[in-house]
């Protein structure tokens, strides 16, 4: 029997997983800011099975050969190496300039505006889809539920957002089909089951619609060397940060100390591995500071401060997390530096009225953030058009110290 429309799309999506994505053209649109006109594809179906090519365009564009840990295939990843002269590293100076996008038009070229009404409809459609997919997985096999999901993604509530991504609805469908077929439950994953993973994946496409025009930090070295990011350590020393975090422990002694502390003082801090990179973009720091300040003002004295569990990541690290069983989707707004995760489960013991959740949802409704409830943590991504006001807020936070 010939497959119907949903079946045809499903077969095409599965087939497309094996087809190399087109070469990406890398361009510079503003001094010191990295942009791509056709973003590189880093999904599991492509990375590790093809070379990623970039056409050199403009100044400061280079191609670095790398080997991904756990992937094995030798690939060429396009990266821009921005080394603007006169960058300062002192807290009082460089934190005001490093990471600044410099011009609102540079951000405007990253992503089209998605009206709040479209995003509201999209999020509601995701919730409906996940609820129905959960029901179907109980009464039918994976392929039947998969065909249902694929068919639903062609509806207007989804296409209004997914059509803005590179490759459109078909490309997103192909990635989702590949992810669902390789999904395995893990105690490390924020996705407790397959429907939860589908929800996280689809809501993360809002981030991609905003930031897919910006080149990601491909390697760990790219994150550490970037002049677009600021270091948290001097900011914490200067009492600029209103939130808590800890760096990832290095070596066996540090991990053993963390294990012992969790056993003896389980409530002193959340159960988290810590930040691999204690760096971020100023707009992200600014918005988390604002939320943390509002939260602290509304809760009793001596309540622990908001805890950040993840900030910027490299694509290399995202693959590392995937190999360990985390629900680390690709592409990811973490890999361009405009996302963070905040601890929710641990904080609820101090926030019985769920004030933190309400503050985050309010900022999403105001069009400043995309917020994804991932259970233990909530994922936050800054909308491009909020970056200017958040940069101003960041500068003001520095000036207050």
Features:
4-stranded antiparallel beta sheet, 401 residues, alpha+beta, single chain, 11 strands, disordered N terminus
Can you walk me through this structure?
Helix 1 (5-16) packs across helix 7 (168-182), helix 4 packs antiparallel against helix 5 (142-152) and helix 4 runs antiparallel to helix 8 (194-211). This protein is globular. Residues 1-90 and 96-106 have low confidence and may be disordered. The longest helix has 24 residues, at 116-139. By secondary structure, the chain is an alpha+beta fold. It has helices at residues 5-16, 91-97, 104-108, 116-139, 142-152, 156-162, 168-182, 194-211, 220-225, 232-237, 251-264, 282-298, 315-323, 355-365, 387-399, and strands spanning 24-30, 33-36, 54-55, 61-67, 74-80, 230-231, 279-280, 308-310, 339-343, 369-373, 377-382. It has one domain (1-21, 84-401). The strands form 4 sheets. A 4-stranded antiparallel beta sheet has the order 8-9-11-10. Helices cover 44% and strands 12% of the residues.
Short characterization:
This protein has about 400 residues and is an alpha+beta fold. It has helices spanning about 5-15, 90-95, 105-110, 115-140, 140-150, 155-160, 170-180, 195-210, 220-225, 230-235, 250-265, 280-300, 315-325, 355-365, 385-400; strands at about 25-30, 35, 55, 60-65, 75-80, 230, 280, 310, 340-345, 370-375, 375-380. Strands 8-9-11-10 form a four-stranded antiparallel sheet.
